[in-house]
Each structure stands twice: as structure tokens, then as C-alpha cells.
Amino acid sequence: MSKETIAVPAKKKKTKEPLFSAKNKRLLYDPLNDNNPITVQVLGICSALAVTVKMKPSIVMALAVVVVCAFSNVIISLIRNIIPNRIRIIVQLTVVATMVILVDQFLKAFLFDVSKQLSVFVGLIITNCIIMGRLEAFAMSNKPWPAFLDGIGNGFGYGMILIIVSMFRELFGSGELLGYRVVPDSFYESGYFNNSLAIMPPMALIIVGILIWIQRSRNQKLIESK
Amino acid sequence: MKPLRKLLNNLKPNFEKGGKLEKFYPAFDAFETFLFVPNHTTGSKGTHIRDAIDLKRTMILVVLSLVPCLLFGMWNIGYQHHLALGMMNVSVMDNFIFGAIKVLPLILVSYGAGLTTEFVFAIIRKHTINEGFLVSGMLIPLIMPIEVPLWMLAVATIFAVIIGKEVFGGTGMNILNPALTARAFLFFAYPTKMSGDEVWINTSPEKGQTVVDAYTGATALGDAAAGYQDKIPNIIDSFIGIIPGSVGETSTVACLIGAAILLFTGIGSWRIMTSVFAGGFLMALVFNLFGLNTLMQISPLHHLTLGGFAFGAVFMATDPVSATQTNTGKYIYGFLIGFLAILFRVFNPAYPEGMMLAILFMNVMAPLIDHYVIEANIKRRLKRIKPIQNQDG
After folding, report:
1. In a mutagenesis test of the B interface, which of A197, A203, A208, A217 is the best target, namely the one with the most B β-carbons within 10 Å?
2. Which stretches are transmembrane (chain B) (predicted)?
3. Which one of A119, A218, B97, B365 is most buried, by most CB atoms within 10 A?
4. Is B185 part of the contact surface with chain A (CB cutoff 8 Å)?
């Protein structure tokens, strides 16, 4: 959790804020680009390397993180005023763990094969720094609705990168997308080979690196002053 | 020469500021300085080392020192091909021509793909073309098996230039040796085309001749890893280089001629070269004392002539950018490369040739070695000033 975002201080407002005010919209969109959990804050890299061999598990993983992140944000935000400060990490962990177990049981019940592919990585969402980071940085000091949006935004920011990375890895590593063969047979007949480096974790790291490179060269806000 | 200069002078205004093709100035500059000694001098902000040898001349000297390896490699490709087909009485020239026809496409593709990438980056980033690729473009085909498909070579070259070099800022900034990055990429991405016993010798049938019965396509180290002691070529053959292997790395003699050129011109570091051989020799000697498997039983000197050890020691480990910069660091760096290369060879049958991985690994470690060498130096010198401080106090 090296590069944590600074919590947006909850403003005291007199009039009732609309549900999707400009500020709330930013909570939703910021993590997709300017404040992406993976490419900007460089959090949650381990799972991004581990589950992105194929697109299907990455999509499921992305959704799982969205759900866990959003609802644990809401729960923590609801009880933020009664959590004793000294044990707040343990309380946060308990909430996250509860959500993860719910998601895990759900996957086992309805998507058993994907659940088997993801194996321990669903359980390891508990240790995903993005979730703990959002709880500490945002949910502890904000109302439930913004916290919910923040959770959704960060979950999708994470999931988006996961899906992009897995798309490239599945395309080059297996010649498939979502399990359907997209590289035509004539390619293989004329000497095309699947790239087995794409199946290995280093390629995920390289793709994440390239994404960061592209994002930084397009988005001037992210370039540090020299 | 004169008409060429005239042509360049005529074209020049188009590329200079305000010209129609201003964007492509880096490309023009590259060609101009490649053909003629540039007439501009270092600006007031540059380092003021004046020498007749600039980056382009350095690089071209390294390419020249690779020529013995290249020529021998071409002959060997032809020789191995004809040997596999049982055609023993082929003249030296025919062997050479056959090899040249097979190797030239590799060189063209390597230079074509790599230089195009360099040009694109130079134009986007508006800097002059980096000369570094002149050497990498020659090294890459020399460390490839002859049967590598050309598209794979192109992909690997582009990958090496972008991921190995441009992401770090271009020539002089890279952490890893770009040529080895290309090879490592292919090795892990397309293992069936980069290892095993089907890629080292061209066995396309010829005039009714087919592959002879006793043919084995494995390299010496491949055979050794599989435990076939009697199939390992003797030390004379492997020293001269009449063995199957990547295009330019089989001959230790050719590598040593290249080493002589590099050392004579002062481009290659003798500290690195000697310590790589020393490290490899010592490690092989230690293993030889145990002699538990076929690879361990190979004598230390024999080890140094097999595979890409000599080629890596002379041309790859001495890469001035990715190697260590301090003199003490160079000894440590070189020694560990030789040491690790033999270690990988002997203990990891999945990678019968450990030289590539050993050099890449030490490339990553090089800044760390330099850091500690410098720290140690600072500490040593700090100790020296302490008594004087005490006298004052």
C-alpha cells in the first residue's frame, strides 16, 4: 500500500446532494483512468498476474472484486463511527472476509468450473490491497453512498485492467477469446505458433507495464514534474 | 564519394527545420552520419571527451569483430547440412554458399525489423537514431538456430528493441542485453522452435539425398544433458566449431579472433572476458571432481568450448551498457556469469545452455554490484581521513 490516495474529506453540506452529482461521478470514473488501482497506484498486482491467463476467470474475478469492494465499503462506512480506532483493521478484515466467503460460496454453487480455475485466488481477495486501501482511505471517512460508488469504481478500475491483460494473454497464448478459437486454422497451417510466454506470469507483468506506459504518455496529469 | 555528398547536400534542406520532411530528420541524420564523418561538434553542454572514435565507429568495429563468427557460421551451416544428408565430399565453397543463403535472410530480417522499430521511435521521440542496433542486429541472427522461422525472428527483434531497450530510454539506458532479450523471448515463447534436436541443422532433402540413419540433430550440450557421453564431440571439434549449434556461436576459434579485435581496439573489457572464462573454468573443475553425471564429467576446458560460452563471454557479457562499470565490479560480474552458466548447464536439464540466462541474470545484478563496489570504496576512503579529524579535535 505504498501509493495511497488521499481521502476526499467529507464536506458538510446543507442542501441534499443529488445521487450522481459531479463529485460522485468522479468517484466512479476516476479509478478507471486517472487513479486506476493497478496502473497508477500499482496495487493488486499479484492477482492480476495470476488469474489473467484466460478471459473467463478474469471477468469473474473482476466481478467478485467489484462486489466485495462495493459492499465492504458500504458496511464499513455504515459502522465507521462506532469502530474503535485501535482495532479498525481487524474489523475491516472481518467484514472483507465475510464478503469474500459469500462470493466464494456463490461461485462454488453457480459457477463451479470457474471457481475451480480461480482456486485460492477468490479467497485471496481478502489480502488484495485495493480493498483494504479503499476501506482505510475512503470508507472510514465517507458516507455509505459515496463509499459504494467508490467501491464500484475501484472494482471496475481493477477489473478493466484484468480483462485487457487477459484478452491479450488469451489471444496470443491460446489463440482464443473467451474460450472460442479466433486465430484461424490456416494461420497454424502456414507456421503460426501460440506464444507460450503469454501463458506465463511475466507476460502479464509486461502487458501491465505497457498499459502504464501508454496511459502515462497519453494522460499528462500522471507525469511527475522532474 | 563526391556525388554522394552532393546528393545528401541537395536533400538536406528538405529535412532541416522548416523543410517539408522535417519530421524525418532523425532518419536522414542517421544515413548522413553513417556515410560521412559528421561536421558538427559537441555542444557546450555535452561531455568534452574528444576522440576519433564515436558510437558509430565503436559499433562498426564490434560488427567487424563478429565477421569471423559469421563466416565460420555460414560454412558450418552448410557443412552440418551436407553431413546430415550423408554428402561428405562437398567443397568448402559449396558449404559456405549453402550456409550464406540460409543465414542472409536472418540478418536481413533482424536488421529490417529492428531498424524500423528504432526509426519509428526516433521519429516519435524526435531524437537521432541510436546506433546501438548496428551490433544487436548482427548478434541476433548469430545466436539463433538456423531453422528459426523468419516471422518469429522479426517478432523477437521488435520485442527486444521495444521492451529491452526503448522502454528504458533507448541505447545506453537498457538494463538487459537486447540481443539476449530477443533470444530469451523466443526461448520461452516458442520453445519447440528454439530448443530440442530439430532446429539446429537444416535437413531439407537435396538431389535425392535424405537424412542418414545415424543422424542426431541435438547440440553437444543437448546430448550431454540427455546422458549420451559418446555423442559429445571431442574438444578439437568443439574448439574449431564443427558441431551443431546456433548460427555463429559454435566456433571458439572465431570467437577468440573477435576477442582479439575487441581487445586490441580497446572496445571489449579484458577484465570481463577473462573473469567469465575463469568463473566457468573453476565451476566446471569443481563439478568435474564430483563427476556425478555426464555434464559434470566433461572436462573444464571442454566445457568452455561447448555451446555459446565463448560467444557469450566475448560479445554478450562485455556489452558496455548492461555490464558493470567499475573495475572491481567487472571481475565479480564476469566471474559470476561463468560460474552461473556452468551451474545452470549442469543442474537444470531444461536449459542445457545456461549462458543466456546467466548473462541476463547478471545484467540485472550489475547495478547492484556497482553500487556495493562504490560504497566499499567510499568506506575505505572515509577510514583514511578519520585520523586527521582526530588530530584536529
Report:
1. A197
2. 58-77, 97-121, 133-163, 239-264, 276-295, 301-319, 331-348, 354-374
3. B365
4. yes
Q: Which of A185-189, A212-216, B10-14 has the highest mean predicted lDDT (pLDDT)? A: A212-216
Domain count, chain B: 2
Task: State how far residue B126 is from chain A, nearest Cα, in angstroms.
Answer: 15
Q: Quick one: pLDDT at residue B38?
A: 66
Q: How far apart are CA B40 and CA B210, in angstroms?
A: 59
Interval A198-224: pLDDT, tens: 888 888 899 998 988 888 888 777 777
Strand partners, A180: A177
Tell if the CB–CB gap between A195 and B167 is shorter than 8 Å. Answer: no
B120-157: pLDDT as tens digits: 888 887 777 767 788 888 999 999 888 888 999 999 99
d(CA A71, CA B393): 66
Say if B218 falls within a structural domain. no
Residue B323 near residue B192 (C-beta atoms within 8 A): no
Assess whether B235 and B177 both reside in one domain. Answer: no
Do B199 and B229 share a domain, yes or no?
no
Q: A1 pLDDT exceeds 50? A: no
Nearest-by-Cβ selection for B167 from A197, A202, A213: A213
Tens digits of residue pLDDT in B258-290: 999 999 988 888 999 999 999 999 998 998 888
Query: Does the residue B331 lie in any domain?
Result: yes
* ipTM at complex level: 0.79
User: B230 with B202, same domain?
Assistant: no
Chain B residue with minimum CA distance to A212: B167
Q: Which domain holds residue B266?
A: 224-393
Give me the pLDDT at residue B371, please. 95
The residue out of B208, B234, B252 marking a domain boundary is B208
The residue out of B144, B173, B208 marking a domain boundary is B208
Residues with Cβ within 8 Å of residue B16, at least 6 apart in sequence: B22, B25
Note whether A193 contacts B193, CB cutoff 8 Å.
yes
Q: Is residue B357 one of the residues assigned to a domain?
A: yes
- The mean per-residue pLDDT over the stretch B232-241 comes to 82
Judge whether B255 and B241 are in contact, CB under 8 Å. no
Q: Looking at the domain assignment, is residue B197 inside a domain?
A: yes
Which residue on chain B is closest to A169 by alpha carbon?
A: B189
Residues of A in contact with B189 (CB under 8 A): 195-198
| d(C-alpha A149, C-alpha A24), whole Å | 7
